[in-house]
């Protein structure tokens, strides 16, 4: 069974009924991931699987620490058929280390889950931060503003997302540059 054939039903079983909007977001993030296939090569399916699973830590049945990247990654690690690279991407998606630090969970995150290749981390951040809560395309500036507005600038999430904003924008720019370079390389001379 391929990674995506395993990941979609798992994410759906955890998110669709209790959190339909989060499920729509996850589907949109996975859709963005498919658009990055030209720059991912053999890792395209890996990214799509991580994209659809990235927010499973919000599932009520999985909440333990209240920090969804860690809760989701810990759950995935209990599954015998979970891919370790997918687990690491879920654990570290979208500058999670900054939020973990704010929550006092950085050591748990870093000690339990090594980071994945920076290009894949950038790609997952790009997909997440270019997708609205309803799963439609957006841009990272509007997405950061939406998150800060939803939680409030003075909340832990609001402060984290504003601190992460420069890295989110830089990661998105790196992905767009890679896509543009791939498109140029594919054009006939």
Question: Which secondary structure elements does this structure contain, and how are they paired or packed?
Answer:
Elements: H1 3-15, H2 20-35, H3 37-40, H4 44-53, H5 68-77, H6 84-92, H7 96-103, H8 106-112, H9 118-129, H10 140-151, H11 156-186
Describe this structure in words.
The protein is an all-alpha fold and 189 residues long. 70% of the residues lie in helices and 0% in strands. Helix 1 runs parallel beside helix 4, helix 2 (20-35) packs across helix 9 (118-129) and helix 4 (44-53) crosses helix 6 (84-92). The radius of gyration is 16 Å and the shape is globular.
Q: What's this entry about, in short?
A:
The protein is mainly alpha-helical and 189 residues long. It has eleven helices and no strands. Helix 1 (3-15) runs parallel beside helix 4 (44-53) and helix 7 (96-103) crosses helix 8 (106-112).
Number of beta strands? 0
- Helix and strand composition category: mainly alpha
Rounded mean pLDDT is: 97
From the N-terminal CA to the C-terminal CA, the straight-line distance is: 39 Å
C-alpha geometry: globular
Sheet-strand content, in percent, reads under 5%
Contiguous helical run count: 11
Alpha carbon gyration radius? 16 Å
| Biggest sheet record | none
> Any low-confidence stretches, pLDDT <50, length ≥5?
none
What oligomeric state do the depicted chains represent?
single chain
What is the helix content?
55-70%
Sequence of secondary-structure elements: HHHHHHHHHHH
